[in-house]
Amino acid sequence: MSLINLKLSNEEIINSNFLDLCCDKYTEPLIRGGQSNADLALHNLDISNYAKLRNNVYPKSKRGSSYLSAYIRHGLIDLKEVWKYVEKFKYEDKTKYRDELLWQEFSRHLYAIVGKKSQNYLNYSINSINSKNTNTEKMNCINTVKKELEETGYMVNQTRMWFASHFSIRDGGDWNNYENYMFKHLVDGSRFANRLGWHWVMGSQTGKVYGFSKFQVQKRAKKLCDECDLNFNCPINDWPESIEITKKNIDVVTDVYKNFGPQEIKTNNKNPDFVWITAESLGDDDPSMKYFSNLPVVFIFDKKLLNSLKISTKRINFLLDCLKEISLKRDLTVVIDDPLIYLKNKLFASTFAPVPKYKKITKINKPLYEFPAQRLVQPIEFYPNSFSSWKKRIKLTI
Ligand SMILES: Cc1cc2nc3c(=O)[nH]c(=O)nc-3n(C[C@H](O)[C@H](O)[C@H](O)COP(=O)(O)OP(=O)(O)OC[C@H]3O[C@@H](n4cnc5c(N)ncnc54)[C@H](O)[C@@H]3O)c2cc1C
């Protein structure tokens, strides 16, 4: 077990503890972690013209994206909070924005039910990815998108779609490798939203493929074509060749408790010694931290998991910023260890996270107190085949 000294700079911490566990050298993300940065971002949120500007890519000054995703993904901003915050904006912008918040919640619901099976195709198998493109390395659009991702840890939704479409449908290979690459570098990287994004693009969720071609680049980032060596010999001039899509069944369990955890606080007559927090819920409003406001707090960087994922130092940087801010308010211990071992026989409280790793750890090490996850939509008892069918059946929690 290594104890992390949060008094050191992020660079010192990362260089002495994380370089073997990461895929890159020390890099700072565009979006900095921490509750006060999250609060400021929400305070400054302006979604005027979001509906029109959301899909813009370059120039960056014309983008309509809100850049809140890393805070939402790590629980520093709750979906309900953003939902309420955008009430004051124009109907078309607020409706579009809220729809995207619902996509985020949908991805969490889907992942809570499907879990690791989301490594495979969902409702449709995608076959005959038959048009290999050999000139990817010379494509200015793809290179620019990759560079932005590696340098900042952020991509707009539109370029995530381009990237996923290009590497799953056109320039084939195992899509999981490319999904992993994005997951490693995105500061908002989550298996729920990232995998859903890939499934949506490939057509494995809806049966409809999102094809990427020169058309989108011309429309959203013309400069990239103008400055591309392949402008007059573009390998993605046409839509991708035909793709075979076959309906398939997915075998899942729709047990609400198993998938979504407790709906009420799970209590005990003994008292916990500390609160265990996870990367899913690092905000001041984390229910377990809030409830046990005087208890020490523990965060565990899972060494085995990090070693297998090899995420970017940008993500570690973001997490360290969050943890440093918590340590100003709470007695916080941060370690690199195996959570299964660290939590063994310990009396702790935690907030449920609807992800496989949390479920695995707490199946073996049961929390004394367990708090429901924060959510915008009530848990569901059915497998959601599509976003639209899900949306018709859900109940908001506000
Ligand atoms: C292939 C692919 C991979 C993706 N990977 C991730 C990921 O790992 N983590 C992640 O949070 N989002 C992911 N998304 C969704 C979306 O692209 C990002 O949430 C969004 O681009 C983040 O930037 P923003 O906060 O400026 O977005 P905005 O456009 O300002 O949206 C506001 C918020 O709505 C939510 N949101 C917006 N679009 C989506 C969407 N399509 N699906 C789910 N939630 C959405 C996010 O929480 C976002 O912060 C992915 C999408 C695709 C197509």
How would you portray this structure in words?
The chain has helices at 10-17, 35-43, 50-53, 69-73, 79-85, 91-114, 140-152, 157-170, 175-185, 191-202, 214-220, 222-226, 256-260, 287-291, 303-309, 313-329, 339-342, 356-364, 387-393; strands spanning 2-3, 124-127, 244-247, 274-277, 297-302, 332-337, 348-351, 369-371. It is of the alpha/beta class and 398 residues long. It folds into three domains: 2-30 and 262-371, Rossmann fold; 35-113, Serine Threonine Protein Phosphatase 5, Tetratricopeptide repeat, CATH 1.25.40.80; 124-247, DNA Cyclobutane Dipyrimidine Photolyase, subunit A, domain 3. The strands form two sheets. It has a six-stranded mixed sheet. A two-stranded antiparallel sheet has the order 2-3. β4, α14 (287-291) and β5 (297-302) form a beta-alpha-beta unit. α9 (175-185) packs across α10. The longest helix has 24 residues, at 91-114. The radius of gyration is 21 Å and the shape is globular. The chain starts with a strand and ends in a 5-residue tail after the last helix. The mean pLDDT is 96. It binds flavin-adenine dinucleotide.
